[in-house]
Amino acid sequence: MYPGSRGELMLKLCALMERDRNHLANLESLDNGKPYTEADLDVTYAQATLQYYSGWVDKVYGETINAGTGLNSVTRKEPVGVVGQIIPWNYPILMLAWKWGPALAAGCTIVMKPAEQTPLTALHLAALTKEAGFPAGVINVVPGFGPTAGAAISEHPEIKKVAFTGSVPIGRIIMEAAAKSNLKRVTLELGGKSPVVVCEDFDVDSAVDIAHDALFSNHGQSCCAGSRTYVHEKIYDQFVAKAAAKAKARKVGCPFAAETLQGPQIDDEMFNKVLGYIESGKQQGAKLECGGKRHGDTGYFIEPTVFSNVQDNMKIAQEEIFGPVQSIFKFTNLEEMIERANNTNYGLAAAIITNDLNKAMKFSDAVEAGSVWVNCYDAVIPQAPFGGYKQSGIGRELGKDGVLSYLETKTVTMKIQ
Question: How much is the pTM?
Fold first, then answer.
């Protein structure tokens, strides 16, 4: 298809998403449990991602290379072909856009498996692509479980690439299946245990707000959640008191209630897993400042929980909790802090909160993370690449890097007579 026509179809899809915004946000809240207001924002961010990549369709081109006398060498960028995409349940519509956008811009066709817990927005968007006029076979949504539908995608010999967002153990399984089948390329965006470093030179109230949102956003169910909050010893006690007060004030309840900031965890498995981590924190000696138990007597609601006096060797300090549990550590100096921040198998994101530009630059240079935020958190935009170091993944999504991962490079060299 002519590239401009692909872009027009993507913009038509965005217009239909705007028309159905309320329906999509309701489906997302119903499926995932996140507050309706957050689901509505996710629809906006998904649209922005697709709009961004609609502008990439006619900007995929190669280069002319100086090959020496008598030779002319050029490169071509060609779509990989059929790609498989497996998305998680924490940001269903947004992760769909992160996957569809660059693949469509590159000219690939898609087989997508949404998470079995949250298939509804993916199915509705598939219907909207038909309404928008996408050719048959370009978008294919296959709901199912990981060991069946997910495995079929990872192992299929005619799928040339698989993109996955989810846990490290499942990422390993997908990578193994890709290797054993046809050595398909993989993009993996996996877990994280991201540090948020709060320096003593910053306003404490503002720092508490940033660190709170970094962890409790989306019920703590985020790969890049700021789940290790490191606070300088000079302001530690003050910060802990304010962080606990803010967590206690967080409204937990029905996702469709206007005042709700936190809905239920996704399912029984994750509900019990998070409560297990909370119990581990208590047993290993962390101080429970607030929360720590089920909220109410029905549903998968967990009280916003804050631990202080957390040590680096504790389970809650090392493993991804994926729930509303803030762990607050104490540090003395930045050199020590950098070493501790990097002492993890993960490297998805990190943040530093400081008014000292030298500290910000030193930290951002030294920390092993794919995204580093200064005096903010979760500042993710379609134009900037996103992905992790170490076991937080392979490759990058979003930005130019996202498109390149769906392209092959062909070199054509001709002898000039």
Answer: 0.95
